[in-house]
Design a protein that fits this description.
The complex is a heterodimer.
Chain A (H helix, E strand, L loop, with lengths): L5 E7 L5 H14 L2 E4 L2 E5 L2 H16 L3 E8 L3 H27 L5 H20 L6 H19 L2
Antiparallel strand pairs in A: 1-3, 1-4, 2-3
Helix pairs in contact in A: 1-2, 3-4, 3-5, 4-5
Chain B lengths: L1 E5 L4 H14 L4 E5 L9 E3 L15 H8 L5 H14 L10 H14 L2 H24 L6
Parallel strand pairs in B: 1-2, 1-3
The chains are: A alpha+beta, B mainly alpha.
Chain lengths: 155, 143
């Protein structure tokens, strides 16, 4: 498999106040970034991910820290697989929860439909930060689709 | 006047360009750059790192421009809700329209250059404005 370019952000934020630190950490989590070390994070590179890190770097700077965004970073195939594996591992747990919730749906048709809507929103949110598509993704989508079909044919 | 933004326009830039043309500058000329250093001296930069008209305090650039030019039309702020979620997706707003707008803009940017994209987006946002205007007005709804 050809090695893909990564975009890296190297950043430093003051220890206090903690609010911007937590905000940045939450956003990194929402982007699905992988942590390489203290204040070093990475994403598979695309126009979109470069932009996401650019805005986050701006936010770090506005909060009194400093941040540099590096593009076109490449590593060995083996190290790349480790990073992709770590990203997949973080996501697969969330997909498993979606699939399990769908499998354990309530019997009431209206409650089932509500659950389908909620799980589809959950899947959309996970999907936005999923750059690796672990096998659990397909299983979770199938479980929710099956629940939706079952909810539709119920009297 | 001249306005500069990053090449490879997506939803926030397309929406900003529409907003500028409709409410700020009737005859704008848009310039696209890949590096903020390449912004021409006579151009106002937007949605580009380091610019005043860009992301600030958790707002996307569309919201920043609304604030900067005191645009208070509730329809524009309703569009801002959708653009914010399509661009940032931080669940600050409830915007079920956002994934659709995001997909459309992403797709258009794959088949059009930036100038053509802004032309098409102009019509798209005119339509979105009219749809949201009628939806907010209530009555018989936006249909």
């Amino acid at each position: 498999m050809p090695r893909r370019p990564w975009v890296l952000m190297v950043y430093r934020l003051p220890r206090e106040p903690s609010t911007p630190r937590i905000a940045v950490w939450r956003k990194l989590r929402r982007l699905g970034a992988v942590q390489l070390g203290d204040g070093v994070v990475a994403l598979p590179e695309s126009a979109e991910t470069i932009e996401q890190f650019d805005w986050l770097a701006e936010e770090v700077t506005e909060a009194g820290g400093d941040a540099l965004v590096w593009t076109d970073a490449r590593t060995s195939g083996a190290q790349e697989r480790v990073l992709l594996g770590r990203m997949a591992e973080a996501l697969s747990g969330e997909y498993v929860v979606v699939a399990a919730t769908a499998a354990d749906a309530p019997g009431d048709p209206a409650a089932r439909l509500r659950l389908v809507r909620q799980l589809r929103r959950d899947l959309y949110r996970i999907d936005r930060r999923d750059h690796v598509h672990p096998p659990e993704r397909e299983a979770a989508r199938r479980a929710v689709d099956e629940l939706a079909q079952a909810a539709a044919v119920q009297p | 006047m001249r306005w500069a933004t990053r090449a490879g326009c997506h939803v926030d830039r397309a929406a900003c360009a529409w907003l500028i043309r409709r409410y700020v500058d009737a005859e704008p000329e848009f310039v696209f750059v890949t590096d903020p250093d390449d912004v021409p001296a006579d151009a106002e930069p937007f949605d580009i790192r380091g610019a005043a008209l860009s992301h600030h305090g958790g707002d996307c650039s569309f919201e920043t421009i609304l604030r900067r030019y005191d645009l208070t039309d509730p329809v524009l702020w309703d569009i801002a809700r959708i653009v914010h979620e399509a661009d940032i997706g931080d669940d600050r707003y409830d915007a079920p329209e956002a994934p659709g707008l995001d997909a459309l803009c992403r797709g258009l940017s794959l088949v059009l250059d930036d100038h053509r994209l802004l032309d098409v987006a102009n019509t798209m946002f005119d339509g979105l404005y009219e749809h949201r205007r009628r939806a907010l007005a209530g009555g018989f709804g936006p249909a």
